[in-house]
Write a structure and sequence with these properties.
- The termini are far apart.
- 0% of the residues lie in helices and 50% in strands.
- The protein is globular and about 45 Å long.
- Strands 2, 4, 5, 6, 10, 11 and 12 form a 7-stranded mixed beta sheet that branches. Strands 1, 3, 7, 8 and 9 form a 5-stranded antiparallel beta sheet that branches.
- A hairpin with a 5-residue loop joins strand 5 and strand 6.
- The chain is built from no helices and 12 strands.
- It has 119 residues and is mainly beta.
């Protein structure tokens, strides 16, 4: 079974930092494309960051320069390092991994973790 377990969410003040983690079982991150999404109340889910299996990354303009995706291959875990957080970053954050071994492609999701940025 493929399972993604997220942790690290919480309350942080504006300008602070937070690191989310996504630990995988049943799938190897370094062999697949992955991404972080977020969904704020009343908003559609949006992609904020992605990493291809070759290690290349892309970031949404709203988080570029503030968020990065470190990866620990030995632990089969990826992270979302969030710096200089703003109130508008408040959302539920989801880890996603795309398995392209099969056709059609399969997507797996973490359970989501709440990030609240407030003073």
């Amino acid at each position: 079974q493929v399972q993604l377990v997220e942790s690290g969410g919480g309350l942080v003040q504006p300008g602070g930092s937070l690191r989310l983690s996504c630990a995988a079982s049943g799938i190897i991150f370094r062999r697949n494309d992955m991404a972080w999404y977020r969904q704020a109340p009343g908003k559609q889910r949006e992609q904020v960051a992605s990493m291809s299996s070759d290690g290349s990354t892309n970031y949404a303009d709203s988080v570029k320069g503030r968020f990065i995706i470190p990866r620990d291959n030995a632990k089969n875990t990826v992270y979302l390092q969030m710096n200089s957080l703003k109130p508008e970053d408040t959302a539920v954050y989801y880890c996603n991994v795309r398995d392209s071994t099969f056709y059609p492609t399969r997507d797996y999701w973490g359970q989501g973790t709440q990030v609240t940025v407030s003073s």
